[in-house]
Amino acid sequence: MADTEKAGALAHKTSSGHADDAKVDPTQDSLVYVRDADTSSDLLGNGTDAVLAAKMHLINVAIDEMGWTSIQSKLALLNGFGYATDSLLALVPSIVQGQVNYEYPPQASGIFPRGTTIGLYVGLFFGALFWGLFSDAFGRKWAFNSSLFISAIFTCLTAASPNYISVAVFNALLAFGAGGNLILDTTIFLEYLPSRHTWALTALACTWGIGQLIAGLIAWAFVAPDQYNCRQAAGCTRAENMGWRYVYVTTGLLVFVFAALRLIVIRMRETPKFLVAHGRDAEAVETLQLYARQANRPISLTLEALQACGELDPAEVERNSKFTFGGLWSHVKGLFSTPKLAWSTSLVFVAWSIIGLSYALYNVFLPYLLASRGADVGDGSIYTTYRDYAIVNTAGIFGPAIGAALCVIPRFGRRGTIGLGGLVTMAFLIGYTRVKTPAQNLGLNVGTNVALNVAYGCLYAYTPEVLPSAHRATGNALAVMWNRFFGIVSSLVAVYGDIQSTTPTYVTAGLMGSLAIVAFLFPFEPLGKRSS
Length: 532
Description:
By secondary structure, this protein is an all-alpha fold. It has a single domain (70-268, 332-521), classed as Growth Hormone, Chain: A (Up-down Bundle), CATH 1.20.1250.20. It has 23 helices and no strands. It is globular, with a radius of gyration of 24 Å.
């Protein structure tokens, strides 16, 4: 009897959806016939492709059998570098904006005054689209290994900019490289995570706060001191205004170190879920068996078991493997393949749009808010502004850690944690408008940033969990693109509105309240489920 026939005859049905679901005694002549497997623990179910769902079920079982190993520990570190880079590079242009404007007055040249920040978000926008489509078509590995190098090169080159336009262009180019980080980091990490440890995806966002802290510390070192910076546009020369250049060079070198470590610490292999979605079952099994041997953990997955699930539609696999608009459209359609998935995807995009505008209004322009409110209560000095900025962002590191603890509690889950983070952020922001002392100014900003990072960190984790693996990077990319688009909108608000008033604070508070409503409407709760 052929192996595939034995698979059907000796079906081993699963029931609990945990690590023991599909264990096969290697001494026995039996295989897992996953067409009959209980996939009730799989978050998205079979969707429209039962064969792919069955194969993903087996991959999930194998990863659960291995459990947490050194592979996940290394990926947590290396993907954390991407998170830190994204937040670091997102904040640097806004931090140095004033000093750049002193040296290259945009108004005098008829240039849009926030062109550098808009350049950053344009780069992030198109970077998300490019790296998302690229990694769904060609794999996560190459994008993971190259994107940070691109960011590092253009970040350093920004310091040599001879005029305002070149600063904006280099910001766009460095952001293009960084634009895929949030997409790739969450996608790769999730696709190697055992189901019992998916909380780590939320905790990974702690490194986002570390990136913010690094940005604040670098700014404190080079933008706050008078010896590196002009304090007015009149007579401001390059020699007297090197502080912002030091910020870019220091940041670029740090990102280069992050990029190099990705090549040194781990020899990245393509994720098994990507391989299976592209019909490369043998490579997927080889990868998992290699990691299992390295970790000295037995797994029962065999190539015969995967092949027993059936074959994917060759035409669909080919469409999904093309780096074209047609390939992009194929992945987009996959995100809306069922009514429930379409509702989920739409709400995720809405959530990212909301938080894209609210986070930028609050955090990107936080130095202005701290300075203006600090002045109202007696201390708006540059030194105090950047000191408080560093303290606020240090506290923000703990937001995702709190989110990771809450999201595994049944009464909260992922949806409840995002909603709670939004509501608490709204409360802190409303309270912030009543600040009367320096201590209140700092304390409420600390509380706001922690709560905001609870919501943001959990949304980062929730998004890839509720996307089908074959289209995960594209869905992640489109969500982040909405986020970046509203980052551009926030720059327009900064130009045409008064960001030193309480208006952005009230707007942000309202947006975070609406985020909570959207979170409660999400149709999927990943807690206790396996992602596809």
